[in-house]
Design goal:
mainly alpha, globular, 265 residues, 12 helices
Amino acid sequence: MGTGWLRLGHQSLLFSIAEMRTVHTWRTWLFGWVARLLAQVTFFALIGKFVADDATMQFVLVGNIVALSCLESMIVVLTMAGERRLGTLPLLAIAPTSHVPVYLGRGLHWLASGIASSVIGWLVLPPLLGVPLPWPEALPAVAIILLVALSCYCYGCFLAGLAVRYRSLQVIVLNLGYLPIMAFCGVNVPISFWPTWLQPVLHLFPLTNGLQAIRAVLAGGAWSEVWPRLALEALVGIGWFALATVSINRVVTKGRADGSLEFGS
């Protein structure tokens, strides 16, 4: 079972690489896609400085750089929903193996792209905008970005299960899944800004705890306060992965029973 999943995961990875090559060359990815994302982050950071001060600019800059990994990872929603549009979902459902690792691996190229975009932003934008980061203390943040991206990818896979079921709503599902993270999870304003009753709920979303861990590292906080946030981010990702597996299995099981896999409402 484990070996089979690894083999299927490897094949999904190879397919994702091939798909990414059809979407971008390294030039269009770097000078088109990534440049556009960095411009977006710069815009929000400059707005932070305009309405407040340099400290706010740093807060917003760090939050939006990390959020890039979330934004790109969640494009898996559109990729997975596209399987139903292209008519390949029934083939996965009838294959003599588990469809779960294949289907949940459909957006691995966006996961990798999101991580790369965030790391590039982390290295380029702070010195470009004159926002000092404490090096080498800021280096562990790169590893934390990997965890955040994985957690957000699992969340995106869960949302993709909804998008596969209601294909006409796939863009709405993506936006309604991503925008609350940008608005409430500490990217542009601290979560303490929001009502007390809402704050515990925000810790169930990806990015929230990982971003808090990154901010603690940058502030020179002790690792005794960083590790619990990292553990919670990992648990949140595992939870969303479990829900994603259940969601995809439910769509496939129902489709097998009523013959509706070829069609999305």
